[in-house]
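Hi team,

As requested, here is the filled-out complex form for the magnesium ion run. I kept the field names the same as last time so the parser does not choke. Let me know if anything looks off before we queue the next batch.

— J.
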Amino acid sequence: MPAGSWVPAYVGVGSNLDDPEQQVQAALEALAGLPDTRRISHSATLRNAALGPQPQPDYVNAVAGLLTQLAPVELLDALLAIERRQGRDRSISVRWGPRRIDLDLLVYGDVVMETERLVVPHPGIASRNFVLFPLLEIAPALRVPGLGPVWRLAAAFNQQEQQARYNRAKHDIVWAIPVTSPSKAP
Ligand code: A4P
Ligand code: MG
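And here is what came back:
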């Protein structure tokens, strides 16, 4: 990508501590104020159960769509700076433990990269309902590099979810049996 070109990027925002709805709104505002960046869209906020060790409070999640001239690592640094300004306490070091604010770079143009500091596309996109469904709301046709369009990922997610529900329920299914015997033909 030539330097200075505008690149579409998507950022996942999540919080489950210290008034999560307000934390997510503050992060969305901060994204709108990033240098060399425009916040083009954002999803509604979604309240949902925490993925990770339990018990912990429910999360509020949202996804924002940006156009940015920042390079991927510059954008990551800007996201980490927003987390710091909102007072994220990194002394809680439990993996997937509760947090005041978390900003994840989900997609950056067609970039695929895996370094110690940054993995893009974010590896959780296809398996996390709190990422996939807000993305579906704002960018159904977005092609996630290496994975395909968001609408297809969301459809596959729904299908897997239904299959899992069916598998859990199938041992309890009582098959329909006739209550009265069919009348004999004269
Ligand atoms: N890093 C690498 N790639 C990225 C990327 N694409 N975006 C590195 C952001 N950061 C990336 O991040 C640790 C380091 O990851 C960063 O310094 C950066 O260099 P972190 O936010 O401190 O770590 P983490 O978030 O605790 O770990 P992890 O595995 O990234 O967790 P996730 O994937 O962020 O998940 N449940 C619900 N319902 N909703 C949620 O939002 N979030 C999490 C955290 C768990 N459960 C959740 C939710
Ligand atoms: Mg994170």
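Two things worth flagging: The chain has one domain: 7-172. The first strand starts at residue 7 and ends at 15.

Thanks,
J.
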